[in-house]
Amino acid sequence: MKSDAQPANRTPTHESLDAGVIMESRGLKKTYGRGSQNVSVLTDANLILRKGEMVAVVAPSGAGKSTLLHLLAALDTPTSGTVYFDSKAIETSDDEGLAEFRNRAVGFLWQRHQLLPDFTAAENVAMPLLVRGEKFTSALEKARKWLAEVGLEDRADHRAGELSGGEQQRVAIARALVTGPSVLLADEPTGDLDEQNAWAMFELLERLHRVHQLTSLIATHNLALAARCDRILGLEHGVLRSREAAAIAGGFPGGEAS
Ligand SMILES: Nc1ncnc2c1ncn2[C@@H]1O[C@H](COP(=O)(O)OP(=O)(O)OP(=O)(O)O)[C@@H](O)[C@H]1O
Ligand SMILES: [Mg+2]
Question: How far apart are alpha carbons 128 and 84 in whole angstroms?
């Protein structure tokens, strides 16, 4: 298992880019609230994602998995610390650069898929393309192609609210990937599914990861699925640690440096 250990003062360089690092976080800290109501979720989260890896983040509910993924996708801002994409600190991007990063570099699969129930599956998938100014016809065409990729060609014109939970999740995967991102951040993609559908969903993610040469970071509670990833990270007391599957199954023992 590869290590995530990094020297404390490390900053990304062309060297890390050459070594295949696509995304990196350094000293990420996130505290919610103010004064005595403070909730300190991430204290020092350091992560290196190399191109082509599929990495699982496994941690108990409330440990900060969603918080971490939101920060990596620039959907929220850290209290301190930095996220780098292709060796560039995303915080240094202007509004346009950030919008570009969110829309093109990263595909985000929400924990609760957040589809628009009254729009069709195809319209939901087309939404990120429409947001970036693509013509409706072309966006719809791409959306249909992606729905076919996730096995939902025949549901393209159904309203999202009429689809089953598993189908809605597949629509959400198509929506996350329709813009052609290089990194997929998936927040508990199998969370609401029964065992059989969870496996099918994970196999779909594995196939898309491989075919589209993605780099994927997947937050999950499912240890069996996590064990199929290239690496597993635990999130304990606001810090990411490398974990063997067996250690995870044993209940997140602390104290090991990454
Ligand atoms: N916007 C917010 N304001 C205040 N506290 C928040 C906010 N978002 C999350 N938290 C708190 O941060 C902690 C981590 O939440 P987060 O959603 O990241 O956990 P998680 O690991 O994704 O949990 P789950 O497995 O249940 O999805 C929780 O204690 C949560 O209550
Ligand atoms: Mg979560």
Answer: 23
